[in-house]
Amino acid sequence: MTAFKNPLIASLDLVAKASFLICVSLDPPRLPMDRVDMDDRKSVRDQCTTQKCLDQTMGARVTFLDNYSRVEKSKAYAAEEKLRKDEYEAQRQAEELASAQSDEQYRIAQEQFHQQRQLSAQQHQVAQTPSQSVQPAPSSQSPAYVVSAQQVRPAQPVAEKPAVLRMWQAFWAGPAWKYTLLIGSMITCLAIWRHHTEAATIYTDYTDAAITNALPAIGAVSALILRWLEMPGLVSGIALGTGIILAIAYAVYATFRTNQGALSITLVIVAKLTLITVFYAVIGMLIASLFSNSARRKGESQARAAARNSREKKQTMALITGLSVAYTAFTAWVCRRPEFTSFSECLEFDTAPA
After folding, report:
1. Please, where are the H alpha helices in 129-175?
2. pLDDT band, very low/low/confident/very high, at 79 (cuts 50, 70, 90)
3. Is 126 part of any domain?
4. Region labeled Disordered — which residues (predicted)?
5. Does the pTM exceed 0.70?
């Protein structure tokens, strides 16, 4: 039974040859041994007279070659994966080493800069000290008396911080601001409840709420514009303070205009100031965080730190937008009339509640 007379044998030869070539490509050193084995099996195949003989000679060979190629491919893939992991680990270690070296260089540069500043300050101080060209005449006083006289010399008075500034720092350093916020929140909840029972009025309409909440923002924007124009810091502070004072004054005026009774007036004023203060404080802190990049973490490359800072800034912008929308919706909810009125109508004083 020969390959030229039997199409089954010819097809088996093609399959065996393809498997043989795959195995040789995966493991070239096996070529002589596999070729001898292949020739032996062909000689045995040519003597076969039954299908069973062909299956034992060629079919078993094809199965062996397929299994062998599959195992070799798995080994090659595992070796390639290991090489890729080793390259990634080497690259990561190189980035960490470069990051550590850059941090060390930055620290050394900072130390040199501080040392240079200290040296320059010392040289400047020495240059400012008047040189004495004439030596003083020897004194008849004893050295002990001179030393005691120098020790008795009164110390220079140290300028103390203003009392208002010290009180403000003590307020934020301790738990006082937390208690203030808690009390303000409770009063705000009570004022909102009285507003919806029509016992008090927080905002008359949308115009009233817009004026009260826009005045601090106008003051802050004016202060930033004046600072951008390189005006003195006092002018920017006056602009910001004017916006805040006008907001407080209008809130008090509008509360007296639309509420009756000391309890309602007090609750509404505290509620307005609490809501506006908390909102602008939170928004201010979030805006300030946009201009400050967090430090790189240990083992983090500069590119990853920049990507993380960019992602955090986008999240902060989304949070600012969400809080602004939520506060606007809440402010509209506590308006007595859901409509806009003229500015002159908001300034008309009317003791009757809206």
Report:
1. 143-152, 163-173
2. confident
3. no
4. 118-140
5. no
- Are both 96 and 200 inside the same structural domain? no
Say what percent of the chain tops pLDDT 70: 68
Q: How far apart are CA 299 and CA 310, in angstroms?
A: 19
Surface-to-core class of residue 160, CB atoms within 10 Å of its CB (0-12 exposed, 13-18 middle, 19+ buried): exposed
The boundaries of the domain holding residue 91 are: 7-100
**Tokens 């007036």 found at:** 265
Considering only CA atoms, which of 340, 200, 177, 205 is closest in space to residue 274? 177
Give the angle 206-212-215 at the CA atoms, nearest 5°: 125
Tell me the pLDDT of the chain averaged across its residues: 77
Amino acid at site 105? Q
218 and 325 inside one domain:
yes
Question: E-assigned strands of the chain?
Answer: none
- Lookup: tokens for 333: 């909810």
DSSP state string for 250-284: HHHHHHHHH--SHHHHHHHHHHHHHHHHHHHHHHH
Three-state secondary structure call for residue 127: helix
Domain contains 113: no
Of 67, 52, 54, 51, residue with least CA distance to 19: 67
Stretch 155-173: mean pLDDT: 67
